[in-house]
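Whiteboard transcription, Tuesday session. T.W. wrote the structure tokens on the left side:
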């Protein structure tokens, strides 16, 4: 059990990424704090498995863009489970938006959900981790922290902000034995990335499933395995890194060389 006696905080446990992470980390013995907009309803199967295996899971539903709510929740969770050893931040609000027409409200919403929550969660768990001089903070980010989407610039801006937050936190919290890294996630099987990021301006997501060199998209389970690695002491020398998990998608450059069935 690689995470026995460890407490993991997952910020969005309801989506497919969150569910896969919850399943994999609980298999390795982690106790879990799960922020769930559904109040656990979307996690019924996962929660049943966790409890059947004798693990602990605390389901909460707080506004992660409120520093006070995050701090109060984690203080209560510390009383119940202990302080946080691993933070998995995986907020990912994507809205169609162009630079020239995006409304202020939509832009600020993207920053709030994707970046502001990362700051408040990092600040709160960082204080707990500093006290014990250990911990791992993992941001599930996006290749669009670096590569423009052509369709959702506000998403790219917010993930770019998280990228630099991670660098600053890795430098400061690293002095207390805390590792801070980002996973720059590419397209996944079953996630309909073509709809999320499809654009009249960019052809990046046209036939995107064949732009992965082996024409085989990854899954949320692949992501969960990487999160597990970054959660354990096996990654003790990985800090301040951006790990691209896209199967080579961004390396594509010649459509006529795509590997088609």
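and on the right, the sequence the group agreed on:
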């Amino acid at each position: 059990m690689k995470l026995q006696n460890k407490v993991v905080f997952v910020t969005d446990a309801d989506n497919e990424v969150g569910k896969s992470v919850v399943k994999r980390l609980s298999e390795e013995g982690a106790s879990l704090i799960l922020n769930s907009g559904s109040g656990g309803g979307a996690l019924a199967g996962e929660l049943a498995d966790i409890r059947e295996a004798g693990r602990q899971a605390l389901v909460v539903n707080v506004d992660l863009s409120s520093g006070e709510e995050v701090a109060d929740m984690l203080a209560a969770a510390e009383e119940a489970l202990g302080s946080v050893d691993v933070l998995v931040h995986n907020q990912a609000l994507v809205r169609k938006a162009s630079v020239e027409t995006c409304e202020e409200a939509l832009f600020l919403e993207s920053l709030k959900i994707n970046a502001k929550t990362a700051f408040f969660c990092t600040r709160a768990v960082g204080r707990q981790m500093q006290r014990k001089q250990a911990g791992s903070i993992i941001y599930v980010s996006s290749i669009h922290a670096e590569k423009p989407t052509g369709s959702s610039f506000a998403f790219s801006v917010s993930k770019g902000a998280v990228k630099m937050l991670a660098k600053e936190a890795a430098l400061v919290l690293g002095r207390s034995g805390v590792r801070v890294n980002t996973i720059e996630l590419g397209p996944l099987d079953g996630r309909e990335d073509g709809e999320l990021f499809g654009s009249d301006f960019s052809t990046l997501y046209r036939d995107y499933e064949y732009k992965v060199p082996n024409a085989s998209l990854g899954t949320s389970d692949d992501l969960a395995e990487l999160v597990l690695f970054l959660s354990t002491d096996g990654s003790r020398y990985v800090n301040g890194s951006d790990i691209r998990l896209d199967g080579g998608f961004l390396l594509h450059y010649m459509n006529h060389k795509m590997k088609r069935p």
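Someone added at the bottom: The domain at 7-257 is CATH 3.40.50.720 (Rossmann fold).
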